[in-house]
Amino acid sequence: MTVEPASSVRPLSAPAPRAGAGPTTAHHPPGGRAAWFAWSIGVSVYVLAVIHRTSLGVAGLDAADRFGIGASALSTFSILQVLVYAAMQIPVGLLVDRFGPRRVLLVGVVLLSAGQLAFAFSGSFGPALASRAVLGCGDAMTFISVLRIAARWFPAAKNPLVAQLTGLAGMSGNLVTTVVLAQALHSEGWTPTFTAIALLGVAVFALVALFLREAPDGPATATASPAAAPRPGVGRQIRETWREPGTRLGLWIHFTTQFPGNAFGLLWGLPYLVEAQGMTRAAAGGLLTLLVLSNMSFGFLFGRVLSRTARARMPIVLTVIGATALLWAVTLAWPGGHPPLWLLVTVVLVMGSNGPASLVGLDYARARNPVERLGTASGIVNMGGFIGTMITLFGIGVLLDTLSPSGADTYAASAFRWAFCWQYVPLAVGTLMILRLRKKLAEAPA
Predict the structure, then answer these.
(1) For residue 161, is pLDDT > 90?
(2) Full-model pTM
């Protein structure tokens, strides 16, 4: 068989039928206005989570001054947050499959708000680090829950588009961070700014509690309900999901495509542009805003393409990986370590494709798992990019401290150049795994 059968036969975005899977795979979600309304409420939580997640990206230099820490310790904030996020993906997927996305989203909002509020009042490194861990736990509960809501409300053929639109909506949260939060930090200060973000959770919690319906009414809802479905053991559910070659391929696609843009936007983009390239904070913030806008544009483009044909999946993935690797190579090899502005803009624009390309991994997992395992499969795949991000954040931080032992004030363009070369280690490993598993998927039965 071929890896990418024509979508006119059976869209690969639809879960593959399984013997004994029961009626959960047979219902037909209605779509329509009610579906978009439910999705919009769920996605509001994801937007809030992205605001919380990326808040440190524009506050990295402020955090270094506030807590008196260097690059390795600063990277620990994002590393721990991402580590908790990645570690929670499988547990959250299981919770979504068993208790439904609405309850999981409500718990996520509470944890996000509590973590950010604690971070706002932290005056030392230890409590601030613990608060980012709580925040990462809440963040982990959002994206998978929204995807599960979409799977219940929308026809299978629309799932790739809705997944991309979910990522695109999340980037609007990143836009709030780069435009509003960065300005508020300088005009209002640390504690008022982060307290205001934490209090946004009150409104979002009320919205979800009062208005979110996680599935349409009718006979299909009853058969699709997590409470009504047979519940295999946790270990068995994880093993069966992992055995699917589409799940493993999805994880490595997510791993390889997401981390360059993620590491740049979450932490190292602003220091690189300000300290290594001599930009003002305003100019650096403008490029980070461009990264967000590019991400949103690519999300819409990829969603439209993938909703029409599944054959575009692997070409999109490999093109994004190749373009990102090539442009960073040119940037880092530029004589003197100071590439021209047009090249920096081009790199940022291409990194905007990283997040949307990573969602292709979720399409592969969704195609190979029945509905009752979609939360678990999405959790496994969604670990990938954040593991890659964690490895990259830590590697760059360690190399910066090694190359600039006197601290942040001595970071030079050459130190950033060599530190950013670390990206090619996870990039190479991930690409090799994608090529290997692509072949296995082609040999596996549908």
Answers:
(1) no
(2) 0.74
